[in-house]
Amino acid sequence: MCETLYGLFSVGHSGSIDEHRGEIVTAPPPSPDVAADEAEFVAALRRLKAWSGLSYRQLERRAADAGRVLPYSTASTALGRKTLPREELLVAFVLACGLDDEEAASWVAVRKRIAVGQPVTATEPRAARRPRWRPAFGFAAVALSLALAGSATLPMNVGEEVEAVHTTVGR
Question: Is 7 helix (H, G, I), strand (E, B) or coil?
Answer without folding.
Answer: coil
